[in-house]
């Protein structure tokens, strides 16, 4: 998809969301290259939270679009809770503001399709910060995969013991919805393939402090026939994995391993990127707005990672495999009935 470019350096932005993760973005933005980005304001529905987070003198507001207009910002960085991703991003795109948003793209695939349509209608860039995909070690692992020939199986083991508090503790599927998307997206990146179907089981161990299922195993069939297997838990006292998980890629000509902490075990060549995580996402967003080249994480590219999550949740709930094509078709039908903007609804109905 083509989108409007912005030839302005530094890029003036408004940060939306002053919660815990919003404060991480705030610290990164304040420390970022002054020739790349300039923070013009912080928006949050809770004005007191915005005032508490923002440094003295930085404008704050409860309406991010109005704050952007007032301060001359040209883009939004949306770090709100998942429920706010759709309304905040939609309003920004139709106000002529490109958006860099935190994962997930939206709360549901139907909302994601609506946001994709909004980006197409407005010609504005909407990019998702799938930050763990930007780990330089993952890029080097992908270089190894390219040399393994045909790939039979990719597996990820993820085991942590995290006590977050707040909305994550109350989610029905905290592992699949809030965390597994990172691994699912990384698997798509490593294989250069998309999911065809998934069989998933989820459950909550007796000692879990989460209301919903904190454990899950999912087996994806990917285009080309490779199987991707995800085995994860939020409730693993004792030995834990990296936040990236532990990876094994079994191919025709050998096996590549990555523990998520250190370099992959086989030598490989991949472009070195001096940035990682959310800082790498910010650089990719600004560079895309300057050049017009679609970045990794652009809404069209990222949508299938969210679809993997929704398909895995459906499979876990129903107890049988789910095809991704069926998930996308059902999501499109829901989006047409949910969407309140007539122009977006027409775009969805046109496919």
From TrEMBL:
Keyword set for this entry? Oxidoreductase
- Give start and end of each Gfo/Idh/MocA-like oxidoreductase N-terminal domain: 13-128
The reply on keyword Oxidoreductase is yes
Outline the extent of the GFO/IDH/MocA-like oxidoreductase domain: 140-256
Family note: Belongs to the Gfo/Idh/MocA family.
Which protein are we looking at?
Answer: Gfo/Idh/MocA family oxidoreductase
């Amino acid at each position: 998809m083509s989108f409007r470019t912005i030839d302005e350096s530094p890029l003036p932005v408004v940060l939306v969301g002053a919660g815990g993760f919003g404060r991480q973005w705030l610290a990164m933005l304040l420390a970022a290259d002054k020739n790349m980005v300039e923070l013009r304001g912080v928006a949050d529905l809770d004005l007191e939270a915005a005032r508490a987070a923002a440094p003295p003198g930085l404008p704050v507001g409860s309406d991010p679009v109005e704050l952007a207009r007032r301060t001359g910002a040209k883009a939004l960085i949306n770090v709100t809770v998942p429920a706010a991703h759709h309304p905040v991003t939609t309003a920004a795109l139709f106000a002529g503001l490109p958006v860099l948003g935190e994962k997930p793209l939206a709360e549901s695939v139907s909302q994601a399709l609506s946001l994709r349509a909004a980006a197409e209608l407005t010609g504005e860039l909407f990019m998702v910060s799938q930050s763990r995909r930007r780990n330089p070690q993952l890029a080097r692992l992908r270089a190894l995969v390219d040399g393994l020939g045909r790939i039979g199986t990719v597996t990820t083991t993820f085991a942590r013991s995290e006590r977050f508090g707040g909305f994550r503790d109350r989610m029905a599927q905290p592992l699949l919805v809030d965390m597994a998307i990172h691994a699912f997206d990384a698997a798509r990146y490593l294989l250069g393939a998309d999911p065809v179907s998934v069989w998933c089981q989820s459950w909550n161990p007796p000692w879990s402090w989460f209301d919903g299922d904190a454990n899950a195993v999912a087996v994806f069939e990917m285009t080309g026939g490779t199987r991707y297997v995800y085995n994860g838990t939020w409730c693993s006292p004792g030995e834990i994995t990296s936040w990236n998980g532990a990876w094994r890629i079994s191919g025709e000509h050998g096996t590549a391993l990555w523990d998520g902490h250190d370099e992959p075990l086989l030598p490989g060549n991949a472009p070195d990127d001096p940035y990682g995580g959310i800082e790498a996402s910010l650089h990719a967003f600004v560079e895309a707005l300057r050049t017009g080249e679609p970045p990794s994480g652009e809404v069209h590219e990222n949508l299938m990672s969210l679809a993997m999550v929704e398909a895995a949740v459906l499979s876990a709930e129903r107890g049988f495999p789910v095809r991704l094509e069926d998930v996308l078709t059902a999501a499109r039908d829901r989006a047409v009935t949910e969407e309140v903007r007539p122009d977006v609804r027409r775009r969805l109905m046109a496919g």
